[in-house]
Amino acid sequence: MTKTILFRADGNATTGLGHLYRLFSLVEMVKDHFDFVFLTKEESTLEVIPKDYQVSKIPEHLSIEKEPDWINTHFPAQSYSIIADGYHFDSVYQEAIKQYGFNLIYIDDLANEKMYADIVINHSPYLKTSDYHKQSYTQLALGTSYALLRPAFLKAAQHERKVNSIDTAFVCFGGADPFNLTIKAVKALLALEDIKHIHVVLGGAYKHHGLLELTEKHSNVLTIHRNLSEQELVTIMQLSQIAIAPASTILYELCCINMPIFSGFYVDNQELIYKGFLGRGAIYNGGNMKDYSQSDFEFRIKHILGKNNHDVIMKSQSMLFDDRIKARHIDLIKQIC
Asked: Which residues form the active site (predicted)?
């Protein structure tokens, strides 16, 4: 009997939505091949979960230490396997899940835990097998061959693109944008006369103020987008010829569309992805953006706009993703079902 998959992740305005969105990417790739339940804590931002998912909620009061027992009670290991994405699913959690007899895939960022999962996926192009402390049975699925991308982006990655001139910019700093980098980047772009239009995508947990006033003042230049479908996001990216974004899931998606990208990091889990993409020559170097000012963005973007062409970076991006990514993930999941 094929087991049902429990996709396990949490996210809200406080913790960010990155783990949810990354797991959504995997669900969308494989949902036609497996039965599944999306499992999340009650305090997660539930409205961002796609409406067609079967969702089960873990009680808010339940501690992470007691969660493996709760899962086994409600979703016994004989019938379910688990795919988990989140930092709280550490060595202790993984070992407990395995002791209940579950097959487990863990989606990792940092390579700083001892791994007990059957399979560990880390799609950063920076990490190597030697970076991991793991069990002898643990299989590693590393690099962009295992990129966690929604189907429309996988499809877009198979098409070549040329950028001959730049007048439209794309800005996205994730679900919560804790340092409000969006408005600094937007103000910098508004100061650059070459940029005629700016598309800003805001996450479900974005709570900062100030963009509305900017939009009213620059309505002919600035367009704010929220709650975009997968295909709508692809379309908005394809309208743009330059992007500003952190080294998170959005960077993978932008590289599929193919354009000059100014990227950096502002939290630890983005740094290894950033180093990997920078090492591959796929992005322009933004470094640690946590303390960026408007003038920092303006200076760096002006430098990029001054380049004659971006063929090298765009070629590097196109080499990151092949047409076997979905098939590889399906094959991995079959191993735990």
From this structure: 19 (proton acceptor)
How many residues are recorded in the chain? Answer: 337
pLDDT digits (tens, 9 = 90+) for 190-227: 999 999 999 999 876 677 778 888 988 999 999 999 88
pLDDT at residue 38, rounded to an integer: 99
**pLDDT at position 289:** 98
> Other CB atoms closer than 10 Å to residue 179's CB: what's the count?
15
Determine the Cα–Cα distance for residues 111 and 144; give it in Å rounded to an integer: 16
Distance CA 5, CA 79 (A): 9
Q: How far apart (Å, rounded) are the C-alpha atoms in residues 178 and 15?
A: 10
The pTM of this model reads 0.92
Whether domain 153-318 has CATH 3.40.50.2000: the reply is yes
**Beta carbons within 8 Å of 63's beta carbon, 6+ residues apart:** none
Position 316 scores a pLDDT of 97
Q: Answer whether 261's CB lies under 8 Å from 246's CB.
A: no
**231 pLDDT higher than 80:** yes
Catalytic residue among 19, 123, 199, 310: 19
**Do 4-148+323-336 and 153-318 come out as alike in CATH topology?**
yes
SS3 state at 335? helix
Which has more pLDDT, 83 or 110? 83
Q: Is 226 marked within a binding site?
A: no
Query: At residue 29, what are phi and psi to the nearest 5 degrees?
Result: -70, -35
| Coil vs helix vs strand at 153 | helix
Residue with tokens 């998959």: 5
User: Active-site residue 19, yes or no?
Assistant: yes
Beta strands at 139-142 and 119-122: parallel, antiparallel or unpaired: parallel
Q: What share of the chain is helix, strand, coil (3-state, %, to 5)?
A: 35, 20, 40
What is the distance between the alpha carbons of residues 241 and 279, in angstroms, rounded to a whole number? 22
User: Is the pLDDT confidence value at 293 over 90?
Assistant: yes
